[in-house]
Amino acid sequence: MYPKTLKHPAMAPSYEKIAQMSALPLWEILGDVVGDEPVPMGTPHIWPYAAMRDVLLDAGQRISAAEAERRVLALKNPALERPGISQTLFAGLQLVLPGEVAPSHRHSAGALRFVLESTGGYSAVEGERCVMRRGDLITTPSWTWHDHENTGTGPLIWLDGLDVPMVNFFGARFGEELGQEQQPILRPDDASVSRWASGMRPHDQHHEQPWSPILSYPYERSRAALFAAAAGATPNPQHGFKMTYSNPMDGGHILPTIAAFLQHLPAGFESAAWRSSEATVFVAVEGEGTAQIGDSQISFGESDIFVAPNWSVIRLQARRDLVLFSFSDRAAQQRLGFWREDTALSD
Length: 347
Ligand code: 1HN
Fold this sequence. Notes:
The chain has helices spanning 15-20, 26-33, 49-62, 65-68, 164-170, 191-196, 219-230, 330-336; strands spanning 45-47, 72-74, 90-96, 101-107, 111-117, 121-125, 128-131, 137-140, 146-150, 156-162, 175-177, 216-217, 241-244, 259-265, 275-276, 280-286, 289-293, 296-300, 305-308, 314-318, 322-328, 341-342. By secondary structure, it is of the alpha+beta class. Residues 70, 72, 90, 92, 94, 102, 109, 111, 146, 160, 162, 164 line the site of 1-hydroxynaphthalene-2-carboxylic acid (1HN).
């Protein structure tokens, strides 16, 4: 608990007594409690998709989606104790085989799904089926019922991103099973896209919750928006062309805790260095590149997943035309008022 070399050795005789009283002399540990700037938590790391997919498909032969409840391989940061990809975020790869259903439940943790492989299927959220195609982003806000079904002929695989570590940090974890495999469907497929995602909103519907009423951001639309914005524009030095998935009610993030982004780096683009107080999970949707994160050099291709811990310096390079999806805890940090970035780093 105390530093090896005490700052105030003259006080040492009283430290045993202070410890026995379940107290701490702040003057010895102030730097650990406040400090000048963040210390990155966890380590940069990459999970190559091909290898993860093999293990996941093997699990698919041995345990059913119903038995598993959720057939998910959690991506555990090698430098953290808890099963998170960062101190604040949970990430996992989930497999649902043809004909299988992951049964309906709900919980305090909010989630997003980024679809990596699909021949047909959907995630049902709060009475609505969100169709799953590669590159689609689907959200499951806190305490919304959700179940998943593969209606295709091949494996359905996606990246799960959840705010589980944040919910657990607060000790606010609740959960409930529906008791039936699938929830009743109340609206047409992708109703939230047609109702809320066209720059219009329904006159007679209110949406007071702190998340986006759009539950699905289809890749076709997101990619088209990204490339339209990039056409003829100058890339941002740190991010290339980058867009934020946004809440049409207020322009904020998709979830109160998790922000999501899609960015395009043209072949050959080398970004300037950047860091921010958020931890970010990246997945390459198209192309390949390299990332320098802190002291780690990472080479990635399609569907590979890698993490940048909070306050780690990030540089991205596109070997081929690159589309990167990412999610981070920026939404929570901005709501709480302490998110910061630093773009003035010298190379
Ligand atoms: C969960 O409910 C799902 O519903 C996926 O698909 C991953 C990881 C931790 C806790 C709950 C799902 C999860 C999860």
